[in-house]
Specification:
This protein is mainly alpha-helical. Helices cover about 80% and strands about 0% of the residues. It is flat, with a radius of gyration of 36 Å.
C-alpha cells in the first residue's frame, strides 16, 4: 500500500514538474513573440523616419543631422563664392521643393538688392512666381516686386503686382494697399473701377470705401 502511495506521489510530482516546464516554455515563447512584435514596430518607425527624411539608411540620416542642409550651405556661399552660389540657387527655383524655392528666392532677392542689382532681383521673383504653386508665398513675391517697382518710380507696374495680391486674397487690407498706390498715380478712372468691383462683391464695404469715393468726387469736381 505504501509503495502504491509513493508511486502516486511520484507521478503527481512529475506531472507538476512537467506542467511547470510547459508553462515556462510557453511564457518564454510569448515573450519572444512580444519582443519580435516590438522590434517590428520599431523597425517600421525607423523606416517611416527614413522615408520622411528622404534617406536610405540611418547613417545618412545621422549625416543630415550632423551637417547643415546643402541648400543652407549654398546660401552661406553667397558671400564668398557668389556667382556659383547664385547659379545653384537659380536651379532650386526650378527644381526644388516649395520650401526650397521660397528660401532660394528670398536669399537671391536679398543678395541682389544689397548689390543694387534690381533687375536680377526682379528676374528672380518672376522666375519664382512662374514655378511656385504656394499662393501665400506668391503674394509675398508680388509685394516684393511692388516695392522694387515703387522704389524705381514705376507705379503702374507696382500697382499691377498689388492687384495680383488683392485678386488672390480679396482682403480689405490688400484693397487699401492697392487704392493707396492709385493715389500715387492719380488715376481717377482706375480708382472708380476697383471700387465698383469691390462693391459688387462686398456691398457692405461702402462705408469703408467712403474716403476713396470722396477723393474721386474731389478730382472730378475741383474747386476753382
Amino acid at each position: 500500500m505504501e509503495e502504491i502511495k509513493a508511486k502516486c506521489i511520484k507521478t503527481i510530482l512529475l506531472f507538476i514538474v512537467g506542467l511547470c516546464v510547459l508553462i515556462f516554455f510557453a511564457k518564454s515563447q510569448g515573450d519572444s513573440i512580444k519582443q519580435a512584435q516590438i522590434e517590428l514596430k520599431e523597425q517600421e518607425k525607423i523606416e517611416q523616419i527614413l522615408k520622411e527624411q528622404n534617406v536610405e539608411n540611418v547613417e545618412d540620416l545621422l549625416s543630415n543631422v550632423e551637417n547643415p542642409s546643402s541648400l543652407q550651405l549654398i546660401i552661406d556661399e553667397l558671400t564668398t563664392n557668389s556667382q556659383d552660389a547664385v547659379n545653384k540657387l537659380n536651379n532650386y527655383l526650378f527644381q526644388g521643393t516649395e520650401e526650397e524655392k521660397n528660401k532660394s528666392m528670398e536669399a537671391l532677392v536679398e543678395f541682389h538688392q544689397k548689390n543694387n542689382d534690381f533687375n536680377s532681383a526682379i528676374k528672380t521673383l518672376n522666375t519664382f512666381l512662374a514655378n511656385s504653386s504656394d499662393i501665400q508665398k506668391n503674394n509675398e513675391a508680388y509685394k516684393k516686386l511692388a516695392q522694387i517697382y515703387k522704389a524705381q518710380g514705376d507705379y503702374y507696374t507696382a500697382l499691377k503686382n498689388l492687384e495680383n495680391v488683392y485678386n488672390n486674397t480679396k482682403e480689405i487690407s490688400d484693397f487699401h494697399n492697392l487704392a493707396n498706390m492709385v493715389y500715387k498715380i492719380d488715376d481717377v478712372n482706375y480708382m472708380q473701377e476697383i471700387i465698383n468691383k469691390r462693391l459688387a462683391e462686398y456691398p457692405q464695404d461702402r462705408s469703408v470705401l467712403g474716403e476713396y469715393e470722396a477723393w474721386i468726387q474731389m478730382k472730378n469736381n475741383p474747386v476753382n
